């Protein structure tokens, strides 16, 4: 089941050529991931405060397929691909209408005070249920 958010390209998102600066796609998908987690009912602040767990990006594999430009209306999507003991693999895209502009596979790890840690069982259950939809 795909989760999506809508984004507008602002002047600050563009480079001298008037297209979205490549690093800003990473910001777009970060926002989409944060909203995806929120849509699951997971409060990341509470997770950090109560259990000492945060998510960190371990790996990003990205393809820049076509440029976005100032004032474009974009959709950023997030799909759960895999749940591991301490990691999540997500497929993310940024589209303008039906055209895919950017595609990434993102690996997140759960980190606790001592480093990588297992995802709490309740989070695994929530995400597994979503994956089966």
- What is the tally of beta strands? 6
Number of helices, counting only DSSP H or I runs of 4 residues or more:
3
Q: What integer is the average pLDDT?
A: 94
Q: What general form does the structure show?
A: elongated
**Oligomeric organization of the protein chains:** single chain
Any idea what the radius of gyration is?
16 Å
Q: Which superfamily, in CATH terms, is the homologous superfamily?
A: Hotdog Thioesterase
Class from secondary-structure proportions: alpha+beta
**What is the terminal-to-terminal distance?**
6 Å
- What is the highest CATH level, the class? Alpha Beta
The helicity comes to 25-40%
Beta percentage is 35-45%
Total number of domains = 1
Question: Which topology does CATH recognise?
Answer: Thiol Ester Dehydrase, Chain A
Low-confidence stretches: none
What is the CATH architecture annotation?
A: Roll
Secondary structure layout plus pairing:
Layout: E1 3-8, H1 22-39, H2 44-51, E2 54-64, E3 73-83, E4 87-96, E5 99-112, E6 115-116, H3 121-132
Antiparallel strand pairs: 1-3, 2-5, 3-4, 4-5, 5-6
What would your notes on this structure say?
- Helix content is 29%, strand content 41%.
- It is an alpha+beta fold.
- The protein has one domain (3-132): Hotdog Thioesterase (Thiol Ester Dehydrase, Chain A).
- A hairpin with a 2-residue loop joins strand 4 and strand 5.
- It is elongated, with a radius of gyration of 16 Å.
- The termini are close together.
